Structure formats: C-alpha cells, structure tokens
Amino acid sequence: MGTVGAAWLGAGIALVCAGSAEKSAEAWPTGVDGAAPSPFAAQARRGEVAVPAIEEVEHMCALLTGCDQLPIPPSLFPADFQDCVKKMANEMSSPAAVNFSLTIRECGLRADSCASLRACALHGASAEACKGRGRQGVVGFCDVDGRAMTCWHDDVLAVRDCTRGGEQCIVVDGEATCTLGPCSGGVKDGEKARCSASSTHLLHCEKGKLASLDCTAFGLKCSSTGDGTAGCATSGPACTGAAQRCDGNVAIGCFNGHEVRIDCDVAGLACLPSPGPRPPPRAMSVGACSAPLGSTAACDPSVKARCDGAAIRYCHAGRPRSYSCKELGFRTCDARKNSVRCAP
Question: What does the alpha-carbon distance between residue 164 and residue 25 come to, in Å, rounded to a whole number?
C-alpha cells in the first residue's frame, strides 16, 4: 500500500464507527446504530465539542484495553490503560475532536460490556466473518451485505459499511475498500483530496477509484483552505494557526481553517489561553483545557500505573486516580506485557 493509500485508510478506519469510505464508508449521517443522529455530530454541527468527564474516558479505556477480539484496529489506542486515558482525554478535548474516531467515541462511550462494544463496532457484520482469513497477513474482502471487511489471523480487524455511505465495496490489491466508482470530474490519482460540489464529501482518487469521506457524519462540512488543502471543518468563523483563546471556560481553537469551541467546564476543566505562559503549578494541560489541582496532593503523571487488587491506581493530569475494573464486569487488574489493564 502506498503512503497516500495508507494515510487515507488510516483516516477511514478512524471513522469505522460511523460508516463512510475510509471515513467514507464509515461515516453515516445517522448514529452508529443507524437510528438517531449522533449527539457528537449534533454538537460539531454547532462548532462545539463537549469534553467527556474523566470517568467516561476511564470507562471507555477499560473496555478498549481490556476486551479481546475487538473489530477495532489496535493502532487506534494504546494497550496500557493509563496511556489510553491520557491519549483519549487529550484528543477529545482538542479542536481536532470534531474529527475524532466515531467508532471509538460512539461505541466506546456507549458500550457497557465487551460484548456490546464488539457488537457496536461490527456494524451488523458477523463476528465469524473472518474465520479462515488473514493467517498470512492482513487481508480484505466484501461480505454479502457490501461491507468492507479487514481480517487478521481469523479475527475482524475493521469493518466499513459501504452501503450506508452510498458506496460499493471492492477489493484492490488484497485491500477491501469503499468506492463511489471510477474517478471522475477532474479528480485524479495522486492529487490532493478535494471537496464535492455539495461541500458534503471529501473526495480522493486512489488507483482509479473514487473514495469519499462524508463530512456530514461528523456534523461538519468540506472546506478548502487558502493553499488548496481540503478537509472536514465546522461552520465557525475562519481561522489560522494553532493558537487558542478563551471565552469564559470555553476554549476556542482552530481545525482545518475554522473555529472550534471546546467546552472545558462540562468535564470540570478550565480554559487556558495560548500562546502564553505554561499552566500554573496548580494546573496541568488536558488538550485545549487545563485541570486545576486544587488542594489535593499532586502526583507525577510519568509514574506508571499499578494494580491494587482489582483496581488500577494511576496519575492523570497531576491528580491521583483509582479505577475499579469490576465496574464493567472485569475480574481483576493485569500488569503483565508491559501494560496495566483490566482483565476477565
């Protein structure tokens, strides 16, 4: 797979939880269950990000790191619980959160067990679909319902529902992908992605086939910056650069040339403008927000998590935390394989 193809696939797999090709057949206008619009997409449509509480992130990371045979590429999240919480908390409280993996956000935050997480991420596909496939390497195929399946060692690695994005599944060089058909309208192989005439899709030509990312699945629109770079963005005011400002406890940053408003307050965080001084000694950065330490004893986030019976004790943003694995039905805490996670 070429560099461009790999990057496009990675973006699509990040959308695996939505339903659009790459993000194209992974992003759907409806929610991950195909029924109601995603609350996350509704917020993004207003140019807003509601930061999840740390307890919600812990809940999600316990499932992501503790459940086996997930139809979600492991490259999308760290295997260690503490590292997962840090990564997800930072990403979901940054301007780029409007383009965050819908599969991880919607399935991970909604699921209450390993079984429900698997079912959500499969998007209706059979958990047995990859039996006998991928034993020599990653391989793709199209199932009978038009889903692009990626298999690895008999397990489902990723699912992309092409039909929900109005596309069809094809296999190119062993990789299953979703396409709108042959490249047309001046969209050529190797060129930058561009916006559709309706500004709803990001279009890209890969090996003569037209892949698309449905920006509306994220509650966004396709927009082009001054240098011709196209991407999904909010309908907020135009902006440039990485600096952010505060509107009370709302951080205002820039993503793909348009403003994003990150509500730090809903997660008990505060806004810290940039550029400027680093967070004060009694606060630590969490994405575009900061976590006040208050009167609690600060801890060192670089210290690795440890198991305490069935609990994971760790430090996040300078605050000591403890997560009980039994909350989601796990039996214990496992500190093997250079990571700490919940285990059955």
Answer: 7
